[in-house]
């Protein structure tokens, strides 16, 4: 098998860290593990036999995107898999979400992913090969109370990558969205700001949902997710465009798609009637 070089953002904890540990032990694999604070990547040293590059990368800093990609190319000469993993959450009612918190999350989840993808695309286009992964969420398929803005970031990623996949149809570059439900990482804890509601009479149920998260009891195991991601990318030439992970993800998406389909079928003839005769 040809050696594959993976480039992952946000490998200090959670999905990114477990995937990095998994790949650090994989044969024929180079790993570019990146994080805002490179000291957070010391856990990789025990696996390093020259196949690992640790690089400083805050995805909201374009100069660090450029530098880390350049370092990766200098050391390994190619990037085969880009995993846009870094991401934040934000729990709030839609009405009370603060512009500062919303902006901060969009800067990482959306603009960070855009800028990373644009930096790596020319390399993959020249290679005429590569896999571009977006860490989306089941919330890229379903909007849920208390996570309107987070869902907004993930729906944005889904729409952009669906279009990108179409644009890349003539290449051997594949795009894949990863859609986990709740997994036991730092996401709902230190990686998510929370705004409490001032209107419990209307938003009491939303607040109860916010209070219930971040306790470390999510159903999903990020090590198992890493295993599935590696097997999927290494296992088949033809990747699924959407990779659901976790029971709540796959069942949540199935229910949503069925409900949407039932509604759209009812509206089909009326929609068609709006076109010129
Ligand atoms: N856990 C879940 O339930 C779940 C479900 C669906 C989707 N996701 C998505 O999974 C991805 C990974 O999150 P996780 O669950 O593994 O949570 P996590 O353990 O909190 O990891 C988040 C990672 O993103 C990094 N990060 C934050 N801001 C960054 C920035 N500006 N530049 C670079 N890295 C940055 C963090 O680095 P620092 O250590 O420097 O903060 C950390 O490494 C996110 O995109 C999240 O939206 C998570």
UniProtKB/TrEMBL annotation:
Signal peptide: none annotated. The keyword Isomerase does not apply. InterPro entries: NAD(P)-bd_dom_sf (IPR036291), Sc_DH/Rdtase_CS (IPR020904), SDR_fam (IPR002347), SDR_oxidoreductase (IPR051911). Keywords: Oxidoreductase. CDD domains: 17beta-HSD-like_SDR_c. It holds the Pfam family adh_short. Belongs to the short-chain dehydrogenases/reductases (SDR) family. This is SDR family NAD(P)-dependent oxidoreductase.
């Amino acid at each position: 098998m040809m050696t594959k070089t993976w480039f992952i953002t946000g490998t200090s904890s959670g999905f990114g860290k477990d995937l990095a540990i998994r790949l650090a032990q994989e044969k024929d694999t180079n790993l570019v593990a990146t994080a805002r604070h490179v000291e957070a990547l010391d856990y990789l040293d025990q696996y390093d036999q020259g196949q690992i590059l640790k690089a400083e990368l805050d995805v909201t800093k374009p100069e660090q995107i450029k530098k880390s990609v350049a370092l990766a190319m200098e050391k390994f000469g190619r990037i085969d898999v880009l995993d846009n993993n870094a991401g934040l959450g934000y729990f709030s009612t839609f009405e009370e979400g603060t512009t500062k918190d919303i902006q901060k999350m969009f800067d990482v989840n959306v603009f960070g992913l855009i800028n990373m993808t644009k930096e790596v695309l020319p390399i993959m286009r020249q290679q005429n090969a590569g896999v571009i992964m977006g860490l989306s969420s089941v919330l890229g398929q379903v909007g849920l109370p208390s996570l309107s803005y987070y869902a907004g970031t993930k729906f944005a990623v889904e729409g952009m990558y669906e279009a990108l996949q179409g644009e890349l149809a003539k290449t051997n570059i594949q795009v894949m969205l990863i859609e986990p439900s709740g997994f036991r990482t730092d996401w709902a804890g230190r990686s998510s700001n929370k705004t409490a509601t001032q209107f419990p009479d209307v938003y009491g149920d939303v607040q109860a949902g916010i209070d219930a998260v971040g306790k470390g009891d999510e159903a999903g195991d990020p090590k198992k997710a890493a295993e599935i991601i590696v097997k999927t990318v290494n296992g088949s030439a033809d990747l699924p465009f959407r990779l659901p992970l976790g029971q709540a993800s796959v069942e949540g998406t199935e229910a949503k798609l069925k409900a949407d389909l039932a509604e759209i079928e009812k509206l089909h003839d009326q929609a068609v009637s709006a076109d010129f005769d």
